């Protein structure tokens, strides 16, 4: 081992070796959550279905393009009900990336691109999406609503019951179509 110097003094090799038998490398950190009262009850409050519904309702009201936000929510909800874990899909050219389980344990299987009512589907984009998905060992999925959500230009009323609003939204069925590109490798 080379000699280290501090302020001109040599440090012996024995001082550079850490003895793990005398002192542990990892130290336990005390749980300080008891010092912060109501932390757990505050988090539990947000996990209640009624609170989740109200928060979603407020979020949807604040969106500039409400019909796209509602369609995204319904597609997201549809995928979650079918057992997929969802993350952002921008790096793969989609809106969502769907995993069959925990994203830390599994690779994603689907690249999901929402198609909104009135939006034209270009064949070139379908081919590009299918080829990209196949190249990264995924399936390209386009998803859309069978019923049109006619809320553009209409401000949602605060008097609406959030639970009733979300229930009526979830009644709108989602259709999905998958594309795989054959002939690669």
TrEMBL record:
Instruction: Report which superkingdom the organism of origin falls in.
Output: Eukaryota
As given in the record, the signal peptide range reads none
Any one Gene Ontology biological process term?
Answer: tRNA-type intron splice site recognition and cleavage
- This entry's Enzyme Commission designation comes to 4.6.1.16
Pfam families, from UniProt? tRNA_int_endo (PF01974)
Q: Which GO terms describe its molecular function?
A: nucleic acid binding; tRNA-intron lyase activity
> What NCBIfam families does the annotation carry?
endA
Q: What is this protein called?
A: tRNA-splicing endonuclease subunit SEN34
- What does the UniProt function comment say about this protein? Constitutes one of the two catalytic subunit of the tRNA-splicing endonuclease complex, a complex responsible for identification and cleavage of the splice sites in pre-tRNA. It cleaves pre-tRNA at the 5'- and 3'-splice sites to release the intron. The products are an intron and two tRNA half-molecules bearing 2',3'-cyclic phosphate and 5'-OH termini. There are no conserved sequences at the splice sites, but the intron is invariably located at the same site in the gene, placing the splice sites an invariant distance from the constant structural features of the tRNA body.
């Amino acid at each position: 081992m080379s000699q280290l110097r501090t302020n001109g003094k040599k440090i012996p090799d024995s001082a550079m070796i850490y003895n793990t038998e005398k002192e542990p490398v990892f130290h336990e950190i005390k749980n300080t959550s008891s010092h912060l009262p109501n932390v757990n009850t505050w988090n539990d409050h947000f996990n209640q279905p009624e609170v989740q519904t109200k928060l979603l309702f407020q979020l949807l009201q604040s969106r500039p393009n409400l019909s796209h936000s509602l369609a995204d929510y319904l597609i997201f909800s549809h995928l979650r009900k079918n057992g997929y874990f969802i993350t952002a899909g921008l790096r793969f050219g989609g809106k969502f990336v769907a995993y069959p389980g925990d994203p830390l344990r599994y690779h994603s299987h689907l690249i999901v691109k929402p198609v909104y009512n009135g939006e034209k589907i270009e064949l070139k984009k379908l081919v590009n999406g299918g080829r990209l998905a196949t190249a990264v060992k995924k399936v390209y999925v386009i998803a859309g609503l069978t019923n049109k959500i006619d809320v553009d230009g209409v401000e949602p009323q605060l008097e609406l019951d959030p639970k009733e609003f979300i229930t009526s939204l979830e009644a709108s069925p989602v259709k999905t179509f998958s594309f795989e590109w054959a002939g690669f490798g």
